[in-house]
Design brief:
Layout: E1 9-13, E2 27-31, E3 34-39, H1 46-54, E4 59-63, H2 67-83, H3 89-109, H4 118-137, H5 141-146, H6 155-173, H7 177-189, H8 199-202, H9 210-216, H10 219-226, H11 234-242, H12 261-275, H13 287-299, H14 305-317
Antiparallel strand pairs: 1-4, 2-3
Helix pairs in contact: 2-3, 3-6, 4-6, 4-7, 6-7, 6-12, 6-14, 7-11, 10-11, 11-12, 12-13, 13-14
């Protein structure tokens, strides 16, 4: 028995490891405030699994020092775990969201100083591909994943939310898997340039000055610079540099009007998540209020009217709207 601070432990869904015998971390069960070693790494036997099932243990724990090993296990088995129908949909959706958050957070916490590598690109594209497949093929996955979307603003959670809204829309529009993979990777990276924007500006509770707004508006260009060594697909790059452009030329940084369809989806998803998320300088709108604002921009020619209509339809039918 370990008498350690509960904050030293991290909960994990039992089902995500109960089909594997080669885990490289210890797992614990909890009774009250105490943690008991249940199985050492590499020793999760059929007997252990039977006990977990017999006693309906849905949550296990790992020590904080083993989180890297757990993350490595999830990464290596990610695709298979998502497709494993023996694992409850809720657990698979939580794994998808948590893994996405972890990857996004690691990219943004480097503050733009350590440039992402080719390995990062491959992880992002694999995540986008797996997310697309999961949402497209698993009945109930759309609503299940939607239940984990965070509406307390952080740049990393915003990037994940936007990528999921984008993938939902791409599934609904029947976009091919390759295009979805590149768009999804770009959506996950769309705000990475904010890593180079001073936090006092990003988190300012009041209105921005014109000078501060100019600084904020540099984040797409910063994002492209940060990703320069990743050899990204052109479509992924377009999502980063053009996600704030508008069809009437009123956007930034280049006032572009010719915007690829997939990037238009990222723009709409970006606006929707920004509107429905609580931020230091604005309250969160409910989904229907946000839809009205987006529809108005579509009517004035700033956003793609057909994509806006499809976006609203997909979120409404998928039952992942707020408010």
């Amino acid at each position: 028995m370990l008498r350690l601070n509960p904050s030293s432990f991290y909960s994990i869904p039992t089902m995500l490891i109960s089909y594997d015998c080669g885990i490289k971390f210890d797992v614990y069960i909890r009774k009250g405030k105490n943690f008991f070693l249940f199985a050492r790494h590499g020793e999760l036997t059929d007997t252990h699994k039977h006990k977990l099932k017999e006693h309906h243990v849905e949550v296990l724990y790992i020590h904080a020092e083993d989180i890297p090993s757990y993350d490595e296990y999830i990464e290596m088995n990610f695709s298979n775990l998502l497709q494993d129908n023996r694992i409850p949909l809720k657990d698979r959706s939580k794994m998808l969201y948590d893994y996405s958050i972890g990857l996004s957070k690691s990219l943004l916490q480097c503050e733009g100083k350590m440039l992402p590598s080719q390995d990062t690109k491959e992880k992002l594209e694999a995540l986008a591909s797996n997310t697309f497949e999961y949402l497209a093929r698993k009945k109930g996955a759309v609503k299940s994943v939607g239940g984990f979307l965070s509406h307390n603003y952080r740049t990393f959670s915003h990037c994940v939310n936007v990528s999921i809204y984008v993938m939902l829309t791409l599934v609904g529009l029947g976009v091919d898997k390759h295009s979805a993979k590149m768009t999804g990777a770009g959506a996950l990276l769309h705000d990475i340039g904010k890593a180079r924007i001073p936090k006092k500006i990003l988190n300012k509770p009041g209105h921005l000055t014109p000078e501060e707004r100019e600084i904020i508006n540099t984040h797409p260009s910063h994002g492209l610079a940060i990703c320069r060594d990743m050899a990204l697909d052109d479509l992924s790059k377009e999502c980063i540099i053009h996600h704030h452009e508008k069809l009437d030329g009123s956007g930034y940084p280049a006032q572009a009007r010719c915007i690829p369809e997939q990037v238009r989806i990222v723009t709409i998803a970006d606006i929707y998540d920004a509107l429905t998320t609580e931020r230091p300088y604005s309250k969160a709108y409910n989904a229907f209020e946000a839809f009205k604002i987006i529809a108005k921009d579509a009517e004035t020619g700033r956003l793609d009217k057909d994509i806006c209509r499809e976006f609203v339809k997909i979120l409404t039918e998928g039952q992942i709207i707020t408010g």
